[in-house]
C-alpha cells in the first residue's frame, strides 16, 4: 500500500503526492500495469482528502504516467525505461564563459553613449501620453512594415529634412539596421553578389555571411567607391555610404553618384543600398541630397537608423524601398510582424511629429560642433601637436589623427588598450589590404570629455617618445 | 555673367543660388571647365554678401558640381551627362497597393488583443521609474543575448514557475519568436532537415523557408508527434509544441517525451525546439514540466514569448539554449546587438522581479477561465447546441466546436467571412492532408464578448440550416 511521508512538505500536498508517485514510477518501484489504490483508500491511508488524491492522479494522467480504465481504476503506464535514456553523466557541465566586454576608461571608438545626450524628460512624457491616449493602437499588431503613424512621421521628416518625396508605404521599420540588412538580403536574394566598400565595416560582411552571402570588397578613391571595382567584382548589389563614408569621411560628389546610378541601371537586378547612418550630424553646410532622391529608376534602397540620432539602445531603424520592391516585399513577408514594439513606435512617431526630433538633432549638432572645436583646440594648443596632424573630414562625429610614428597601428592600439584606452586605426577598416594608410587613428569625440582627451594625449606622447 | 532672380525665394539665399547654379550645370547651360565668377563679383552683381556666395560654392564643391583651382578660382566640374542617365520616363509609377488586413466584426481566430487586458497603469509606472533611475543602464548597448537584468528575471521566473534550473547566460532575448526562429536556424545550420508538426503552424515553414530550409511535416497521434515520422523524414531538428499543441490541444505524455528525447540523443546534431508559447494559461492542474527540464543531454532548446502572456505588440520573446550551444552562439553572433530596446527590457525585468508578471498571469488566467465557462454555457444553453459538440482540450485559450454539417470547412469559413466573422477550422492547420478531421472549428475566446458569441451562433445556425 502506497504511503508517503508528509513531513517537510513545501507547497501543495497534491503536488507532493504527484511527485512521490512519479518518482516511484520512474525508479521502477511502481511497475507498468500495476494498479494504484482507489482515491478513497489512498486518501484514508494518508489522512488527506480524496480531492487531493484526485488532483495528483489528474496531473499524472495528463503527463502520461498513469492511465484509467473505466470502472476499474488507475494504472501505471508503460513508459520507456529510464535505462534506455542516456545516463545523466552525459550532461556536459562546463561552465558558461561568455566573452566579457573589455572595460575601458576612455573609448574613442564611439561605442559609448552618454545618458546626458538622451532627451529623457521629453521621451518619458511622450511615452506616458501615448500609453494613456493610444491604448487601442498600441494593442493592434503592426504589419511587417511598421505602424502607419511612425511611417507617416518618417516620410514627412525625410521630405522636409532630406528632400525625399516618398509614400509612407515605401518605409519598412525594423529592430536595428543589422536586422534590416538581413531582411533586405532575403528580399533581393541570397544568391546575389554583394559589394561593400573597403575601407569599411567588416561587420557588414559578417551579417551578410550569416545568410550565406559572400561579400566582395570594392576599393575606393577620393570620390568614393569605384565603378570599375563593381564591374570587376561583377556585383549585383552595392552596399555603400555615399553621404558620409565611414571611416574616411568621403562624401560622394555628383558625378560619381550619376556613374553609380548608371551602373545600377545597366542591368536588371542591380541595386544600391544607400546607408545614410549619420546624415543628421553633418556639421557644415546643407545635408547632401541622397542618392535615393536623384534616382529616377528605382535602383536605390535607402537605409537610416535612430541609433545615432537618438540612442543606440532604442533599436529602431528603417529602410525606404523603391516602389516596385514594395509589392514584392509584402508578397514575401506579410506573414511576419514588425520587430519593433508598438510602444516605442508610437512614442517615436509623436517625438518626430511634434518637432522634438528636429530640436533634439539641432541641439546635438550644436553640442557636437562645440565639442569638436574644443577638442581640436586642446590638441592644437598642447605639446602633442608636434606628434600628429589633424585631418578633418567635414562631418560626422569623428576626425582623423595622423600620428608621427613608425610603430605599427596594432601595436599602438595594444599599448593604449593596456592603459585602458580604446582607439581604432583607419587600417582596422581596410578589408582588402593596402586600402587604408597606416598611422591614421579615428577620434570619435561624441562621448568623451576634454579631460579624457588630455589623458589620452599624454599617454600617447609617452608611447610615441618612449618617455614617461 | 551669372545673375539670378531673387523674387519669391523661399528659404536661405545661399541655397537658392546653389540650386540655380546646380540647375544650370545639370541642364548644360554652364559647361564643364567653365570658370565661375569670383565670389566678390558674383556677390556685387546679385547684391548679396560674399559669405552667401561662399556658402553656395561650398555646397556645390562638396557635392562635386564645382571644383577650385588654388589662386585661380571656381570651375564647373565634368559630371556625367544627364542624357547618359536613363530618361525619367523609366520611372515605374504604379500605385502602391498594400494588402489590407480584412475587417471583421468578430474574430474567433485569436488575432485580436483587447487593450483592457494590458496592465497599462503598472507598465507605465515601471517604465517611468526605469527611465528616471536607470539612465546609464538604458544607454549601455545590450549584448545579443539581451540585458543581464532581464535574463536574470526570466531565469528566476522559469525556476519558480517551470522548475527549470538554468544559468541566465543560457537565455537569448529577441524581438519576437519569428526573429528567434531565424537566429536559431542560423546557429544550428541552414542545411539541417526540420520536422514540424501537422496539424500545426504553416507560418513555421514560411519562416524557415526564408532561410532556404525546407520543412518536412510530421504526423501526430493522440500523444503528439510520432517518432517514426521523425525517422521517416530523417529529421535533424524537431520543432514541436509538446506542452499544449496548437490547434489540437494535445499535451505530450511522459512516455512520448522520453521517446522523443531518446530519438534526439541517438545522433549528434539532432535537436528539439520546444515551443512553449502559452504554458502560462494552462487553466487546469499544475503546468506540465518542460521537455527542457527532463533533458539530461542538452538536446532541447526552449522557446517562449511574452506575446501571449503580456501583449503581442511588445515583441519580446526568448529562448533557452543548452549549455554547449551558448558558447557556439556567442562565437557566431557576438557582433550583433540585441533586437529589443533597452527601455522595454528593463521595464519587463522590473515587471517580473516585482511580482507584477505573476499577478498579471493569475489575473488573466482567472479572467480566461471565467470567460471560457461563460461562453461554453452560452453555447450549451442555447438552440445551437443541437448543431454542434464542444470538444474541450483542457488548456490554452481555445476549444473546438464540431459542427454537424456536410458543408466543407472552406465553405463555412467563406460564408462566415461574408458576414464579417473570422473563424479557422482544424483542417486549416492540416499540412500533410488528411491529418485533421473536417468540421472542427477553433473557437479562441480570449478576446470576444458573450454578445459576439451569440451573434456568431445565430449566423452559424442560419448557415447550417439554410433558414434565416
Features:
468 residues, alpha/beta, four-stranded antiparallel β-sheet, 40% helix
Describe this protein's structure.
With 468 residues, chain A is of the alpha/beta class. The first copy, chain A, has helices at residues 13-27, 39-46, 50-62, 120-133, 135-139, 148-162, 177-188, 202-209, 227-233, 254-265, 291-294, 323-333, 342-353, 356-381, 409-418, 450-465, and strands spanning 66-69, 73-76, 106-107, 171-174, 194-198, 215-221, 224-225, 237-240, 271-275, 300-305, 317-320, 388-391, 398-403, 421-422, 424-425, 440-444. In chain A, the strands form 4 sheets. In chain A, strands 4-11-10-9-8-5-6-7 form an 8-stranded mixed sheet. In chain A, strands 12-13-16-15 form a 4-stranded antiparallel sheet, with helices on one face. In chain A, a hairpin with a 6-residue loop joins β12 and β13 (398-403). The longest helix of chain A has 26 residues, at 356-381. Chains A and B meet through α3, α4, α5, α7 and α8 of A and α3, α4, α5, α7 and α8 of B.
Amino acid at each position: 500500500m502506497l504511503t508517503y511521508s508528509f513531513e517537510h512538505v513545501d507547497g501543495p500536498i497534491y503536488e507532493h503526492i504527484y511527485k512521490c508517485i512519479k518518482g516511484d514510477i520512474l525508479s521502477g518501484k511502481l511497475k507498468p500495469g500495476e494498479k494504484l489504490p482507489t482515491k478513497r483508500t489512498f486518501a484514508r491511508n494518508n489522512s488527506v482528502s480524496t480531492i487531493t488524491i484526485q488532483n495528483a492522479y489528474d496531473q499524472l494522467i495528463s503527463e502520461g504516467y498513469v492511465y484509467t480504465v473505466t470502472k476499474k481504476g488507475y494504472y501505471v503506464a508503460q513508459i520507456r525505461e529510464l535505462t534506455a535514456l542516456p545516463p545523466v553523466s552525459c550532461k556536459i557541465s562546463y561552465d558558461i564563459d561568455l566573452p566579457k566586454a573589455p572595460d575601458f576608461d576612455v573609448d574613442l571608438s564611439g561605442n559609448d553613449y552618454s545618458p546626458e545626450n538622451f532627451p529623457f524628460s521629453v521621451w518619458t512624457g511622450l511615452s506616458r501620453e501615448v500609453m494613456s491616449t493610444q491604448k487601442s493602437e498600441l494593442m493592434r499588431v503592426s504589419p511587417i512594415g511598421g505602424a502607419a503613424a511612425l511611417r507617416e512621421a518618417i516620410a514627412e521628416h525625410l521630405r522636409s529634412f532630406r528632400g525625399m518625396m516618398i509614400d509612407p508605404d515605401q518605409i519598412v521599420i525594423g529592430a536595428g539596421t543589422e536586422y534590416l540588412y538581413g531582411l533586405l538580403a532575403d528580399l533581393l536574394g541570397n544568391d546575389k553578389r554583394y559589394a561593400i566598400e573597403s575601407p569599411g565595416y567588416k561587420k557588414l560582411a559578417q551579417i551578410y555571411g550569416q545568410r550565406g552571402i559572400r561579400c566582395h570588397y570594392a576599393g575606393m578613391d577620393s570620390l568614393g567607391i569605384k565603378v570599375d571595382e563593381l564591374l570587376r567584382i561583377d556585383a549585383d548589389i552595392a552596399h555603400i555610404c555615399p553621404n558620409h563614408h565611414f571611416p574616411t569621411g568621403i562624401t560622394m560628389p555628383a558625378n560619381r553618384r550619376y556613374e553609380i546610378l548608371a551602373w545600377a541601371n545597366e542591368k536588371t537586378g542591380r541595386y544600391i543600398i544607400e546607408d545614410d547612418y549619420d546624415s543628421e550630424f553633418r556639421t557644415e553646410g546643407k545635408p547632401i541630397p541622397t542618392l535615393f532622391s536623384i534616382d529616377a529608376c528605382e535602383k536605390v534602397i535607402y537605409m537610416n537608423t535612430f541609433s545615432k540620432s537618438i540612442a543606440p539602445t532604442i533599436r529602431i531603424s528603417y529602410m525606404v524601398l523603391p516602389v516596385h520592391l514594395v509589392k514584392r516585399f509584402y508578397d514575401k513577408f506579410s506573414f511576419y510582424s514588425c520587430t519593433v514594439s508598438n510602444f516605442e513606435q508610437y512614442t517615436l512617431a509623436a517625438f518626430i511629429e511634434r518637432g522634438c526630433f528636429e530640436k533634439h538633432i539641432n541641439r546635438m549638432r550644436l553640442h557636437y560642433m562645440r565639442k569638436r572645436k574644443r577638442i581640436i583646440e586642446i590638441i592644437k594648443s598642447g605639446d602633442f601637436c608636434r606628434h600628429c596632424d589633424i585631418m578633418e573630414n567635414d562631418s560626422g562625429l569623428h576626425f582623423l589623427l595622423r600620428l608621427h610614428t613608425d610603430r605599427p597601428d596594432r601595436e599602438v592600439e595594444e599599448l593604449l588598450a593596456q592603459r585602458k584606452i580604446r582607439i581604432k586605426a583607419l587600417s582596422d577598416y581596410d578589408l582588402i589590404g593596402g586600402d587604408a594608410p597606416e598611422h591614421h587613428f579615428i577620434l570619435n569625440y561624441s562621448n568623451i570629455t576634454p579631460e579624457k582627451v588630455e589623458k589620452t594625449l599624454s599617454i600617447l606622447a609617452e608611447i610615441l617618445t618612449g618617455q614617461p
